[in-house]
């Protein structure tokens, strides 16, 4: 039952996993990892032989240069705004982009795929990444970058960045210590 709850929680409207390397009081995030569907897909479908793609006008018209980047939006995605607000990076690149360096991957990527879902059949019908495939890509990333993370005790994986009561409680406990009883 806990596994099902965790998977459903992962596939909420958008789920963003932040990797935090400093104590909670500092809120100094070093990386952002994004899982989900078209609401946060930053262009992974551009590198898949699938139907859902955002590579034509009007997609991207509000981005620098007005060029479609694979985002199912006229501009930035919510994950881009969050990454920028946390001073991680301006845009979260798609994991499948072929020219990402290890350093770029370490600062964060997007695993989301438009049309993807919890059910494997959903992704297989349209040839997009299902949630389990996104998680497989994340596991691959962890193995690829393991040589850069010398002390894993410094890293905390936090999946409460999406709007839930748990995230409000977490933030309130650190931001408003004096105000809480």
TrEMBL record:
It comes from the Eukaryota. Belongs to the 'GDSL' lipolytic enzyme family. One of its GO terms (molecular function) is hydrolase activity, acting on ester bonds. InterPro entries: GDSL (IPR001087), GDSL_lipolytic_enzyme (IPR050592), SGNH_hydro_sf (IPR036514). Residues 1-21 form the signal peptide. Keywords: Signal. This is Uncharacterized protein. Pfam families: Lipase_GDSL.
């Amino acid at each position: 039952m806990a596994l099902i709850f965790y998977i459903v929680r992962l596939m909420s409207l958008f789920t963003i996993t932040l990797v935090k390397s400093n104590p909670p009081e500092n809120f100094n995030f070093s990386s952002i990892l994004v899982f989900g569907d078209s609401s946060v897909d930053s262009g992974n479908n551009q590198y898949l032989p699938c139907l859902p793609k955002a590579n034509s006008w009007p997609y991207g018209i509000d981005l620098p240069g007005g060029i479609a980047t694979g985002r199912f939006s006229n501009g930035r995605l919510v994950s881009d705004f969050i990454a920028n607000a946390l001073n991680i990076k301006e845009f979260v690149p798609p994991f499948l982009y072929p020219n990402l360096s290890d350093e770029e991957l370490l600062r964060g990527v997007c695993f989301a795929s438009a049309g993807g879902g919890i059910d494997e059949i959903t992704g297989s019908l349209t040839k997009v990444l299902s949630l389990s495939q996104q998680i497989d890509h994340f596991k691959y990333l962890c193995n690829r970058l393991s040589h850069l993370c010398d002390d894993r005790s410094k890293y905390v994986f936090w999946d409460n960045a999406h709007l839930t009561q748990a995230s409000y409680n977490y933030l309130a406990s650190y931001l408003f210590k004096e105000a809480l009883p």
